[in-house]
Amino acid sequence: MEDNMETILNDECGLVKNRLIIVGVSGGADSLCLMETLRQAGYPILVAHFNHQLRPEAEQDALLVEKIASRLMLDCVIYGADVRSHADQEKLSIEEAARNLRYRFMFKLARERNAQAVAVGHTADDQVETVLMHFLRGSALTGLKGMSFRSVIKSFDPQIPIVRPLLKMRREETVEYCAVNGLYPQYDSSNDSLDFQRNRIRHLLIPKLESYNPKFRQAVLRMADSLKGDYDFVMETLEKAWRETVIAMDEKIITFNADLLSKYSVGLQRNLVKQAMQILRPGVDISFSILERATNRINGNSQSMRVDLKGGLHMFRELGLVHICTLDAELPFNLWPQIIDVNAVLVSVPGQVDLAGGWRLNCERSPIPALAKEQAERNEDQFQVWLDVENLSESFELRTRREGDHFLPFGMDGHSQKLSDFFVNEKVPQRAREHWPLLCVGGEILWVPGYRSAHPYRLKSTTRNVIYFSVTRPPDKIIE
């Protein structure tokens, strides 16, 4: 194994010898083996020890690590926190709380020292235990592939990687390595406690499974290696789909193009939703049922406009868009035309009217009615319309909805409908209805931009007087 270590450090972990590495050292055999391996290979390292304050001998562990680092002339930083108290406050397991605080400490140190990576001493035995833990939770490919030599945990840092050079070494090998190199590990009594799930898997489950297959550990490691290739393929596909479907994002909201999103397989949709949730809420635990609710909404299998996810996140679909956002996110209003002024705005022909968010209404006469009729029949853009204005006063105005508004939608043979019902039936975004622009003459609605015109003013073979109206989007992106 030692003969291959240089290749693992260079090729698999991507480490260079001219930048610092933060090495997590607990005082156990695995972490001391990692520390000494990197030191002998010529990598600049800083020893980082986190005192979990869970055991009476925790202070002795810290002193031991500090003493070893001093003897080897290595810089060392010791830090501690009350893990049990943190677990109670955040409603986490002791294991999860310990990991969170330990990793926060090491990545904070890595940023302060401009380190190239954080290195930890996970071994092949840890890999087997981790895969089994994920399997018991019902994990997908992400969990079953296990840990990688090099990865980025975005919840701790979006750029600095965590590296695990010992993933091919057995625990017994690290003990032997320490003995050969004159290092004396501190024994962690908590490793014997069956209060922790990992220890139960280590001491109870794995020995039982080895009674069925003596080479069970090797089988799990082969499976994890095989699944890594599949995972890499999925991630490449996911990143391509992300670039194609995400319209905009900030720290509180990520918006997808709903039409493009719905064209992907349900499995890829789940992964896109999961990635969005992890970006907005790093570390959030995402179950399959949450992702299933989200994809049901994306594919129109849910009647609810809004889907509550987890961690204060929710998702809803409106006007060709799917938003995943925090509860306090200020959703953009420039996704559709809006009138902020409560008073009606006069529309001159020809002319234009500026609306909120960079939208604009334009109008002009169509001098050739037959050509206008042909264009109208081919038109698929609901934000443009040709109207027969022969019997109108042409005192056009744009206004918002009023109490008691009725509408005669095109295609309903002149049957009247409450505007509020029309909005509901057409699924006009609820938060946009109050300020949606309506083209009117007097009190009569001629056109609801983006949806339908009034049936009496459709173009007919006898039409002689035509005005063309269009509402155009902002010239740049939908969302800034």
What does this structure look like?
By secondary structure, the protein is an alpha+beta fold. It has three domains: 2-212, HUPs (Rossmann fold), CATH 3.40.50.620; 227-326, 2-Layer Sandwich (Uridine Diphospho-n-acetylenolpyruvylglucosamine Reductase, domain 3); 345-472, Phenylalanyl-tRNA Synthetase, Chain B, domain 3. 38% of the residues lie in helices and 19% in strands. The protein is built from 15 helices and 21 strands. Strands 3-2-1-4-6-5 form a six-stranded mixed sheet, with helices on both faces. A five-stranded antiparallel sheet has the order 7-8-11-10-9. A four-stranded antiparallel sheet has the order 12-16-19-20, with no helix packed on it. A hairpin with a 4-residue loop joins strand 9 and strand 10 (313-318). The longest helix has 30 residues, at 216-245. It starts with a helix and ends in an 8-residue tail after the last strand.
User: What is the CATH architecture annotation of the largest domain?
Assistant: 3-Layer(aba) Sandwich
**What is the β-strand count?**
21
The residue ranges in which pLDDT falls below 50 over 5 or more consecutive positions are 476-480
The CATH homologous superfamily of the largest domain is termed HUPs
**CATH class category of the largest domain:** Alpha Beta
For the report, how would you describe the main beta sheet?
A: 6 strands, mixed
**Rg (C-alpha, Å):** 32 Å
Assign the CATH topology of the largest domain: Rossmann fold
Helix content: 25-40%
Strand order of the largest sheet: 3-2-1-4-6-5
Work out the helix count.
Answer: 15
Q: How many angstroms does the end-to-end distance come to? A: 52 Å
* Total individual domains: 3
Counting helices, strands and paired strands, the structural category is alpha+beta
**Tertiary shape:** elongated
- Estimate the mean pLDDT confidence: 89
Strand content: 15-25%
